[in-house]
Amino acid sequence: IMSDSDSDFSDNSEANDDEKVSRPKQIRGVADFVDLSFHPSTTYTLATANMNGYVRLYNCVPGEECEQLAKVRVSKKPCRSLSFSYDGEDVLILTKDRTMHFVSSATGNLTRRIEETHRSAPYCLSVIDKNLLATGDDDGTLKVWDLRKGKDAVMTSEDKFEDYVSDIAVDDKRRLIFAVCGDGTMATFNARQRKFIVHSQNEESDLLCAKVIKNNNKVLVGSADGPILLYNWNEFAAPSDRFPGHPGPVDCIAKVSEDVVCTGSADGLIRAVHLLPNRFLGVVGDHHGLPVEKVEATHDGKFIASCSHDNLIKFWSVDHLKSVEVCPREKAIKQKRTEKMSKSGVGHGKMAFFSDLNNDIDTSTYINSSSSSDELDSDSDDAS
């Protein structure tokens, strides 16, 4: 109940717009989430992985609390990367103990394991097609796997990178893979022919994430120094364009359309960015100063989910971004870098703060009442 002294908040149009946005309510976990992935076709089925080795599946409905469908602890070590399979039948998880786990998205049961996938801890995973996937580790080794051919990789590259493989992007034809590295370079491979194509020039800054955009005509790469790098197709040795403006590292990218992406940064803000012409559209999400670890879009591009070091997964509406048109003759507006877009559900002031409290959902709600969630998500060897 609001008193007369609070009436100024009720007149806040941004806050009122924020309350009208229908998006899934945020999920509160008991340990930091490290990765998340949406099902490639079904309506808003979300898989999450956390630092304690747990994988959970949720059904996310706009305007409602997310329903936990399954929970399994795949390892006593932290999860490192997670993705749905190409057909969505399985969730693939890499853990710090160098194991790849397969969890059925229908039953939530662990169905398969591949042990000792890398010599060092794996860092990232990317699905190429229904049979092929690529993984990268902390020492710069890239591997391509054919799930029909047992437990050995069909391609291994150990000499292209001098640091960790931070992300792997796949083109729309499921043929080329682009691996970016902490040593400041990007390597391009032909996954079907199992061969290396080209190594890019060194950018002298960690390359952190990559996406293929513009209908398979551009590769977009986020850097630790802030600029977004754009590579022309078949010209992957050096970027053709640089888009500065982020105040810190661009840690992750989610593709909303062929022209618009959402970037997660170390300052906790998720920004909508239009590419070619390059413009900031506004802020669509906020983790209040904590680095954004992952941002992922639904298969229809209506929502994105994000996670940070706050044990939360937050949802933001981005459907309105798909129809944005940018005139190349208009001057860029600097304020757009920090201007919050109420249509996405990120508001201003005290109203937005109090409304966020109602969005929290504790995963322990779905855990057997005979055991606390802290016990079940413990890192101790006695946890089952």
TrEMBL record:
**WD repeat start-end pairs:** 129-155, 285-326
Under SUPFAM superfamilies, the record lists: WD40 repeat-like
Q: Which InterPro entries match?
A: WD40/YVTN_repeat-like_dom_sf (IPR015943), WD40_repeat_CS (IPR019775), WD40_repeat_dom_sf (IPR036322), WD40_rpt (IPR001680), WDR55/POC1 (IPR050505)
Composition bias (Acidic residues) maps to: 1-17
Q: Which SMART domains match?
A: WD40
Q: Which UniProt keywords apply?
A: Repeat, WD repeat
Concerning PROSITE patterns, the annotation shows:
WD_REPEATS_1, WD_REPEATS_2
Region described as Disordered: spans on this chain = 1-23
Superkingdom to which the source organism belongs: Eukaryota
Matching entries from Pfam families are given as: WDR55
Q: Which residues form the signal peptide?
A: none
Give the similarity note.
Belongs to the WD repeat WDR55 family.
What PANTHER family does UniProt report for this protein, alphabetically?
WD REPEAT-CONTAINING PROTEIN 55
For this entry, the protein name equals WD repeat-containing protein 55
